[in-house]
Amino acid sequence: MNTLRALALLLLLGACAAPRPQAREAVAHRLGDRDYLLLDAHRGTAPAPLVVVLHGGGGNAGIMLERWAATARAGGFILAAPNGIGRLPRRGTWNAGGCCGEAQARGVDDVGFIAAVIADAARQAPVDPRRVFVAGLSNGGMLTHRVAIALGGRLAGAAVVAGAMFGDEPVPRAPVPMLIIHGEQDRSVAYGGGISPNPLVARAQTRPFLPVRQAVEFWRRADGCAGAPMTTSRDGVTVEGAAGCPVRFVSLAREGHGWPEGASAMVWDFFQGLPGR
Fold first, then answer.
1. pLDDT tens-digit series, residues 142-191
2. Of the candidates 22, 20, 29, which has an alpha carbon nearest to the alpha carbon of residue 52?
3. C-alpha to C-alpha distance for 250 and 239, rounded to whole angstroms
4. In this structure, are residues 273 and 3 in contact, taking their beta carbons and an 8 Å threshold?
5. CA distances (Å), 249 to each of 16, 46, 202, 229, 230, in order?
6. Is residue 77 a part of any domain in this protein?
7. Number of domains in the chain
8. How far are the Cα atoms of 152, 183, 259 from residue 134, in angstroms, in the given order?
């Protein structure tokens, strides 16, 4: 339970809130008609972890860079922030199957794109192939589920913040440690699932969201978790996990939709505690 308490404490304290980095700190790389930002914050000569961060619907890579740059510098890891597809510049979406927007309407292969980003980042920086992670927000969290299912053999862990599943996901190719963070007051990707109460999000859906609890149970089954989970709660933050189970669920009683303060540090703390591939 020490890990669970540490995760809860990080969120409660709002640890390592990221300041806005300067654009020169990251380098843009193109992959055909797609692109991503790469921030190489590793120290020394040894291979370093790679964290791929996926923005929410209507967002862009720069937003995730702002949220993650300080944590990357403090942790000494390599950060890749891809851009989604959108009709307007810097307003991208991801094809997560049942959502969202231009990317879903065009049937874009975003899982393939993220695989290409991982491969290209390893050519640009000294990536440790045993420590590759993916984390996403909202629509990016929905894609993170799909990436973890399809690319599990290449990932050491994943994290989903305010994302969802749709109920038609295949069995993952390999177990993937998973952290799921969700606000109980979310009015865009509702905690209880269904069609979004937010009309803009609802129009981007082609299928209802599953309740967050079902996504947690999906990964508990995929990761072979047999023991009953234990919980710790404090000030509206409930952290759930079980010994020997690489799935953690953080439920935020008072949070709505978005990237909670301290979430980047919490996700990195979870990733650091994993053994790697």
1. 999 999 999 999 999 999 999 999 999 999 989 999 999 999 999 999 99
2. 29
3. 5
4. yes
5. 21, 32, 25, 10, 10
6. yes
7. 1
8. 10, 20, 15
State which amino acid sits at residue 133: F
Task: List Cα–Cα distances, 118 to 8, 124, 155, in angstroms.
Answer: 30, 10, 10
Q: Which two tokens stand for residue 182?
A: 């969700």
What type of residue sits at position 121? A
The 3 state secondary structure assigned to 70-137 is HHHHHHCCEEEEECCECCCCCCEECCCCCCCHHHHHCCCCHHHHHHHHHHHHHHHCCEEEEEEEEEEE
Sequence-separated (6 or more) residues with CB below 8 Å from residue 231: 4, 238, 239, 240
CATH code assigned at 65: 3.40.50.1820
| Nearest residue to 267 via CA among 57, 39, 79 | 79
Cβ burial 12-41 (10 Å sphere, 16+ → b, else e): eeebbebeebeeeebeebeeeebebbbbbb
Please indicate, yes or no, if residue 158 is contained in any of the structural domains: yes
Q: For residues 59 and 62, what is the distance between their CA atoms, to the nearest angstrom? A: 8
Q: How confident is the model at residue 193 (pLDDT cuts 50, 70, 90)?
A: very high
pTM, two decimals, is 0.90
Structural domain including 109 reads 2-272
The answer to whether position 277 is within a domain reads: no
Mean pLDDT of all residues in 56-84: 96
109's CB contacts (< 8 A; 6+ apart) are 95
Distance CA 110, CA 112 (A): 5
Phi, psi angles (nearest 5°) of residue 38: -125, 120
Reported in sequence order, the residue ranges of the chain that DSSP labels E, i.e. its strands, are 27-31, 34-40, 48-54, 78-82, 127-137, 157-161, 178-183, 230-234, 237-241, 247-252
Q: Confirm whether 30 is domain-assigned.
A: yes
Q: Please give the Cα distance from 152 to 163 (Å, whole number).
A: 18
